[in-house]
Amino acid sequence: MLHCLLLMPREPTAALQHEPIPRVAVEQQLARELHLVLGDTIRIGSSSDAGGQPFVVGAIYQPRADPAEIAKGERHIRMHLPDLAGLLGAPDRVDRLSIGIRPRISADSAAAALNRSAYGYRVYTSRAIASQSSQTFRVVSRFHRAIAVISIVASTVFLLCIMLLKVEERRQDAAMMRFVGVRRRTIFGALLLEALAIAAVGSLLGTGLAYLAGAATNAYYRHFFNTTLTFSIITPELVSFSIAISLIMGTAAGAMAAWRLVRTPPLILWGRG
Questions:
Q1: Among the listed ranges 46-50, 128-132, 140-144, 190-194, which one has the minimum average pLDDT value?
Q2: Is the pTM of this model over 0.70?
């Protein structure tokens, strides 16, 4: 593996025409930072005190966005394997390589067969590597899930308090309706519908706020890390689940507050009991 790069100033390619100069592909961000363009000649060495071997920038590429690499701040180049082996002085040696398998062949079976065939290397499936490298993201996901549960519980308590306050403000209205013969079931249903409407409006406002917050998060971190990764995803399943939880909690809070109101005698509601 090439650990250290020595990038020398540009050299005219014509001055090195006595032998073919190998070409390398430079990552777009590295080329932008070093002001490299196609055709520039650079020197690459395996250590900072090495003279370095000349290479011509033959391509500038944009790597695929990778969450595991986003925070490392590393820059990469790509070169032909014989050029890399000659640069490191270690022919016929590799640190790691990727093996493609044909369709309908089990990756686990292929990895097990290769591991039994010889010593000196270890074969892992891409799923196993992804699972191992994504442990940090799993911890963050569990942390976010815990925050979501706490937020739902807190919002439920807050909604119950709002409904109780609204019901307390309508004590005399409820008493008047009871005096004129309105049934408790009708009063209960009206208050329940009001709570359901409040929960529905709150769900819509919360969904809109979530989309705005997600868009702002993606815009900021894409600019900060110079990547196309998506940092905040709001899926239809998540929106449906959130709305369902909101409606259920809102209905339950409204039912509790309405039931407390209709069970109170009218004279007490009027303030005469």
A1: 46-50
A2: no
Whether 167 contacts 261, CB under 8 Å = yes
First vs last C-alpha separation in the chain: 86
Pairwise CA distance, residues 209 & 203, whole Å: 10
Is residue 5's pLDDT more than 70?
Answer: no
Task: Quote the DSSP letter at residue 119.
Answer: S
Please give the pLDDT value at position 12: 47
Q: Which residues contact 52 (CB under 8 A, 6 or more apart)?
A: 6, 8, 43, 44, 45
Residue 244 structure tokens? 């369902």
CA–CA distance, 128 with 108 (Å, rounded to integer): 10
Q: Is 71 within 8 Å of 34 (Cβ atoms)? A: no
Helix (H, G, I), strand (E, B) or coil at 239: helix
What lies within 8 Å, CB to CB, of 265 at 6+ separation is 273
Give, for 242, the enclosing helix (H) or strand (E). Answer: helix 236-262
Helix (H) or strand (E) holding 60: strand 53-61
The C-alpha angle 134, 140, 146, rounded to 5 degrees, equals 140
Q: Are 231 and 217 in contact (CB under 8 A)?
A: yes
Q: 220-225 contacts: CB < 8 A, separation 24 or more?
A: 225/70, 225/71
Cα separation of 215 and 114, whole Å? 45
- Rounded to an integer, the average pLDDT of 114-125 is 83
